[in-house]
Amino acid sequence: MKVISNYINGQLIAPQSGQYIDVYDPSVGEVYAKLSDSDNRDVGQAVQAAKKAFPVWSGMTTEKRSAILLKIAQGIEANFEKLALAESIDNGKPLKLAQEVDIPRAASNFHFFATGLIHFASESHSMEEGAINYTLRTPIGVVGCISPWNLPLYLFTWKIAPALAAGNCVVAKPSEITPMTAFLLSEICIEAGLPAGVLNIVHGYGNKVGQAIAEHPQITAISFTGGTVTGAHIAKIAAPMFKKLSLELGGKNPAIIFADCNYEKMLDTVMRSSFANQGQICLCGSRIFVERPLYEKFKLDFVQRTAQLKVGDPLLENSNLGAIVSEPHMNKVLSYIDLAKQEGGTILTGGKRVKLEERCKNGWFLEPTVIEGLSYDCRTNQEEIFGPVVTIMPFDTEEEVLMYANSTQYGLASSVWTENLSRAHRIAAELKTGIIWTNCWLLRDLRTPFGGMKNSGVGREGGWEAMRFFTEAKNVCIKY
Ligand SMILES: NC(=O)C1=CN([C@@H]2O[C@H](COP(=O)(O)OP(=O)(O)OC[C@H]3O[C@@H](n4cnc5c(N)ncnc54)[C@H](O)[C@@H]3O)[C@@H](O)[C@H]2O)C=CC1
Ligand SMILES: O=C(O)/C=C/C=C(\O)C(=O)O
Closest ligand 2 atom, CA of 444? Predict the structure, then answer.
């Protein structure tokens, strides 16, 4: 059985506890690897290694740092098939999705920041009084990156690439539920010649390793993606130490469909925004609002298309949906389907666990589910489900749909479907979400600010936002 070691000070090493955690393949429901059960001792060791490496890494020329990060990107590309297969086995997502989205994006994250760092420059502001300010952006030192299980390598690299590009040394923790590709990345980093201690990957539970990262006084900035409750917990620990925080948290995203939309394009994309990655993306559109004249047609077509989706072995080419990441998570999603029924919802399609045969007979699979007949303010429509479950609701006016869309504690992303340009701008101005996609979904330009409002997070990642987060701004004012 594969044993997943920590990557500390350039070495693959066992956890100090000598203990290991079971890692499951969700499509077969069985343990297939053992993961280091690390604790604050391993985090302490990682921080010491990172501190030692900091003068070397931050003092390196940008060209040299860029070249090493590009080598990591090339290493991801060279190991493309191995990483995609590992991601699919670890997470349960269709192999095709890992090949088309997760792994290419992980390589892009490194490419993007490896080249970006060369162009990252100081700002200067001249004053009429005869003075000039220039703002130095210096690396922070040792930073922490904590990532979730839904897009494992994609989100892990989305954090560590800018942190490293900005000249920091990193103590990183991938999710204990999906640690495999982060482990494979540590092998790639060794191969790429990343100096020892620059990146340290400490595996284990959130309440041990994650907690130790949040508490460590020498980790002065943390980038976290995960659940809102965990984000609030980390914020509470970090606040008295005045740590810099970037929190990418949950969502309950609206998809708003007007009757004048490009119907076929909308339908194809809304299928994806509802069920991609089994609905386990914080950006998925889980509340679908449809203008009343289009509602019945949309309902008919959407339900029919959903019922035709194939839930199957993630390794097979024709599976549209794979397994849910874990048994507890599958049960959580099922409990929300029960709640929807109690709240008066009608299940139009789906709603049950899927029992596959042979290899996947004990896997954790769910039918893609469409629910109607719920009020906008019931729990099903207010709380994050994070699975292949969407609700559909009609609306009559722009004011009404904006009220529905903005009614939750979350404010991550919205998608809007209309051919009316003025309306698109009007709606975008009123939606309280950090990201608004009009006539598209998850169309990503890595230069743009990425993040949420309200309980969906604090701060923005991506492009210069990430480089600014991972640096200290120091203004120098010179009077001449
Ligand atoms: N990006 C997103 O929006 C995500 C949202 N979620 C939501 O959160 C819910 C719970 O999922 P979980 O896997 O439990 O997410 P989580 O928020 O517990 O896990 C995310 C990361 O935080 C770590 N973590 C957990 N406790 C920690 C602590 N005390 N200190 C520091 N780090 C800690 C985990 O080990 C993991 O690496 C999901 O059902 C879903 O609704 C989950 C994953 C991603
Ligand atoms: O950066 C992206 O393209 C996607 C990010 C997705 C998440 O943060 C998530 O699903 O947790």
Answer: 3
| Ligand 2 proximity of 155 Cβ (cutoff 6 Å) | yes
CATH of domain 253-447: 3.40.309.10
Residue ranges, CATH 3.40.309.10, the chain: 253-447
Atom of ligand 1 nearest to the CA of 385: 41
176 contacts 152 by C-beta, under 8 angstroms: no
pLDDT digits (tens, 9 = 90+) for 300-341: 999 999 999 999 999 999 999 999 999 999 999 999 999 999
pTM over 0.80: yes
Give the number of the atom of ligand 2 that is nearest the alpha carbon of residue 442: 3
Q: For a pLDDT cut of 90, what percent of the chain falls above it?
A: 100
Ligand 1 centroid from CA 230, angstroms: 6
* Percentage, residues of the chain above pLDDT 70: 100
Helix (H, G, I), strand (E, B) or coil at 35: strand
Residue 82 C-alpha to ligand 1 middle, in angstroms? Answer: 26
419 is catalytic: no
Closest Cα partner for 386 from 307, 284, 302? Answer: 284
The ranges of the chain annotated as CATH 3.40.605.10 are 2-249+456-479
2-249+456-479 topology per CATH: Aldehyde Dehydrogenase; Chain A, domain 1 (3.40.605)
Task: Evaluate: CB of 225 within 6 angstroms of ligand 1.
Answer: yes
Give the pLDDT mean for 346-369.
Answer: 97
Rounded mean pLDDT of the chain?
Answer: 98
Out of 87, 248, 367, 372, the active site residue is 248
Q: Locate all alpha helices (DSSP H) within 120-262, ordered by sequence.
A: 152-165, 180-192, 211-215, 228-238
* pLDDT given at position 409: 98
Q: Is there an atom of ligand 1 within 6 Å of 173 CB?
A: yes
Q: Is 157 in the pocket of ligand 2 (CB under 6 A)?
A: no
| Cα 208 to ligand 1 centroid, rounded to whole Å | 13
Token couple for 423: 């309306």
Q: Is the dihedral of CA 307, 308, 312, 317 positive or negative?
A: negative
DSSP secondary structure letter of residue 310: P
How far is residue 94's CA from residue 100's CA, in Å, rounded to a whole number?
10
pLDDT digits (tens, 9 = 90+) for 210-258: 999 999 999 999 999 999 999 999 999 999 999 999 999 999 999 999 9
Distance 347 CA to ligand 2 centre (A): 28
